[in-house]
Amino acid sequence: MTIAYHAKIYVTLRPSVLDPAGTAVESGLEHLGYHNVSHVRIGKYIELTLTAEDESAAQKQLDVMCDKLLANTVIENYRFELLEVATVS
Amino acid sequence: MTIAYHAKIYVTLRPSVLDPAGTAVESGLEHLGYHNVSHVRIGKYIELTLTAEDESAAQKQLDVMCDKLLANTVIENYRFELLEVATVS
Description:
Chains A, B: It is found in: Cytoplasm. Chains A, B: Keywords: ATP-binding, Cytoplasm, Ligase, Nucleotide-binding, Purine biosynthesis. The structure is a homodimer. Chain A has about 90 residues and is of the alpha+beta class. The first copy, chain A, has one domain (about 5-85): Mth169, Chain: A, CATH 3.30.1280. Helices cover about 30% and strands about 45% of the residues of chain A. The first copy, chain A, has 2 helices and 3 strands. Chain A has a 3-stranded antiparallel sheet. At the A-B interface, strand 1, helix 1, strand 2 and helix 2 of A face strand 1, helix 1, strand 2 and helix 2 of B.
């Protein structure tokens, strides 16, 4: 049996890593008059569909996908949410 | 009274808009041997802290920030989650 999962993946810079994009957005917001905004951090939000035998198989595959391609684990953290959407076969 | 909120903002391409980055990631995953992945869409995940009088004031400000700077509303959708973190004054 194969199950289709919808995955939501959040890739964020590790807290210790500087975030020039976040800093740029923060100053952009200041230029718009928002002086009440701080700690702006920019990351990636990835959605995808994958099929697997079960949830733990899907999780294992996502971990490898994140480690190898979706995140640079030297400077980034990742987390994901899985939602079963359909039984495929 | 001023309340500090932690905001999580998700900026995604509208469904009708092509996603070359998503397509590139999808073929990258195929090269890694993952032929069970589809519908890859890449978006922005923004975290920030803002202070406001109450939640509805914070929501209104975030809407303007998204409309003016954080999202290109011609081709992108946005949604956000607000979490009260502290009473500042």
